[in-house]
């Protein structure tokens, strides 16, 4: 059995839930339908021989089994509605109507099973689909009464059957209205759940991202950097960090306004993100200051990436400030085994300070100084 589940892909929890629903609807519903019709046959209300009865339900159960096998094989995944809700409802309703053609006196008892069938789709189907299947059932039920009263007039109390049909039609209308109301509530809940999900996603994003640039914020970046340092400390790989500071950013804000200043920050974030690989990241530390972390790399490659970033930023064009040229000063520091995180960051900050002191718009590498007191774990 486990091998069959493996072959049909039922480890997928959603597919497994669909299979359970289809099995329950067809097997439980089919057994209830068969039992009601069998009792009607024992009471002499089934119009036909035993061969007709068994042939009819052999055909009905063949359809049930076909739908079950279709779902077990995973073919339902190709459908627009993999849950198979409406196909099961349409087939079960049709099987019910066919059997109702052969039942006399107890026909309404059989048709009442339709509401159990309809119930399976109340929370999973569109209101329009349920209304269509309700109209289909009511009209075909009426057609059955007219045919039976014409072909087998001695077996039908026409007035009583029409009264029963009218009762069934009214009950179907009531159930359809209830399903419509439930559908409205379901849609409202679904919309509110989507809105709540978006709010939660936004909160989670704000917890780790800077809202303006989309980069990691300072707190989350420090958490990630601490973990990367631990792995690098075990000799897993080399890591280079860089402090980057946009040159004369206050003047940009004062001259062109904060809107353009925000655009400059976003452009830097876009350029940095495009140049960094998947294992690297860039974070906004505040204002115009950024931290870049380049993992599994050496100083030569890191400096090449940072120089490319500096060059591309200097070539950026701004529509509302054609004369503006944005430059950046950067200080790099390669991780030294055993170096505390604070000391590592301090070396990068010192390199950034030197870049500014040497005239800005440049990249400076921090020296690999030996630590006082030896390596620190």
From TrEMBL:
- Alphabetically list the UniProt keywords: Coiled coil, Membrane, Transmembrane, Transmembrane helix
Q: Which InterPro entries match?
A: Diguanylate_Cyclase, GGDEF_dom, Nucleotide_cyclase, Rev_trsase/Diguanyl_cyclase
Q: Where is the GGDEF domain?
A: 237-368
Keyword Membrane appears in the UniProt entry: yes
Q: What is its EC number?
A: 2.7.7.65
Q: Which domain of life is it from?
A: Bacteria
The record's section on NCBIfam families has:
GGDEF
What is the recorded name of this protein?
Answer: diguanylate cyclase
């Amino acid at each position: 059995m486990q091998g069959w589940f493996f072959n049909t892909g039922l480890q997928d929890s959603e597919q497994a839930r669909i299979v359970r629903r289809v099995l329950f609807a067809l097997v439980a519903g089919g057994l209830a339908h068969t039992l009601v019709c069998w009792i009607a046959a024992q009471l002499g209300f089934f119009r036909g021989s035993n061969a007709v009865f068994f042939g009819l339900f052999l055909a009905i159960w063949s359809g049930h089994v076909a739908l079950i096998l279709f779902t077990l094989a995973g073919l339902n995944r190709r459908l627009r509605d993999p849950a198979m809700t409406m196909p099961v409802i349409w087939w079960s309703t049709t099987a019910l109507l066919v059997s109702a053609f052969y039942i006399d006196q107890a026909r309404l008892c059989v048709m009442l099973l339709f509401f159990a069938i309809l119930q399976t789709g109340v929370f999973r189907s569109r209101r329009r689909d349920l209304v269509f299947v309700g109209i289909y059932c009511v009209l075909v039920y009426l057609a059955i009464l007219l045919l039976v009263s014409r072909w087998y007039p001695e077996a039908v109390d026409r007035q009583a059957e029409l009264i029963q049909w009218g009762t069934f039609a009214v009950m179907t209308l009531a159930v359809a209205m209830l399903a419509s109301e439930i559908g409205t509530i379901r849609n409202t809940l679904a919309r509110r759940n989507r809105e709540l999900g978006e709010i939660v996603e936004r909160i989670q994003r704000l917890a780790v991202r800077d809202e303006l640039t989309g980069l990691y914020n300072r707190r989350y970046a420090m958490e990630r950097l601490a973990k990367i340092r631990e792995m690098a400390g075990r000799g897993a790989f080399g890591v280079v960090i860089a402090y980057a500071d946009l040159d004369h950013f206050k003047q940009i804000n004062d001259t062109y306004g904060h809107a353009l200043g925000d655009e400059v920050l976003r452009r830097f974030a876009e350029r940095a993100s495009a140049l960094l690989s998947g294992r690297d990241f860039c974070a906004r530390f505040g204002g115009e200051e950024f931290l870049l972390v380049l993992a599994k790399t050496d100083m030569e490659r890191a400096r090449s990436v940072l120089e490319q970033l500096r060059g591309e930023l200097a070539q950026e064009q701004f529509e509302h400030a054609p004369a503006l040229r944005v430059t950046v000063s950067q200080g790099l520091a390669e991780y030294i085994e055993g170096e505390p995180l604070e000391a590592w960051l301090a070396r990068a900050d010192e390199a950034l300070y030197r870049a500014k002191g040497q005239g800005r718009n440049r990249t400076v590498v921090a020296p690999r100084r030996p630590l006082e007191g030896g390596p620190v774990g």
